[in-house]
Every structure is written in C-alpha cells, then in structure tokens.
From TrEMBL:
GO terms for molecular function: DNA binding. Residues 58-87 form the DNA-binding protein H-NS-like C-terminal domain. This is Histone family protein nucleoid-structuring protein H-NS. It holds the Pfam family Histone_HNS. It comes from Paraburkholderia phytofirmans (strain DSM 17436 / LMG 22146 / PsJN) (Burkholderia phytofirmans).
Length: 89
C-alpha cells in the first residue's frame, strides 16, 4: 500500500532528527581533529581565516576620522568623490 502524505511527513521528520544526531556526533570528531591540527602546526586565526577586513582601513575622513575599508556601499562622506585624498597608506 502506498504511503499517505502524513506518513511521509512523519518519516521525513524522523530522518531529519536522525541526520541532526549524526551531524552533532561527527561534528565533535571534526572539531577535535581540527583543534589537534591547529596545535600541531601552530596555526593562527589569520592563517586560517585571513585578515579581519573590518579592521582594515583604506579610507579616512580627514575632519571626522570616520573610516571605510572599501568594501560594500560607500558611506555618504566619500560617495561620488575622488577617493584619492581619503586614502590611508
């Protein structure tokens, strides 16, 4: 006999719960392995993830001191202007 909608939905929920349980179990193993490799090789966060772009300052408003890293929408104080004078070297 073919399953009905409710039966299939119940089976999906059960499988999703089982998948989440397996994910959590495997995640513990993956994190432990990663932590061991980080210790073995002496890796730093910068080596793993690159520089923190929020800390990167490329442009600074000379009067207010506001900064912008050049990513995303430009702030009003630099929008549509020549960026050269605002560039931080």
């Amino acid at each position: 006999m073919a399953e009905n909608y409710r039966q299939i939905k119940a089976r999906i929920r059960a499988l999703e719960a089982q998948a989440e349980q397996l994910r959590r179990h495997e995640l513990r193993q993956v994190v432990a392995e990663m932590r061991q490799k980080i210790r073995d090789y002496g890796l730093t966060p910068e080596q793993l993830f690159g520089p923190n772009l929020s800390d990167l300052v490329r442009y600074r408003h000379p009067e207010t001191g506001e900064t912008w890293n050049g990513m995303g929408r430009p702030p009003n104080w630099i929008k549509g202007k020549d960026r050269g004078p605002f560039r931080v070297d």
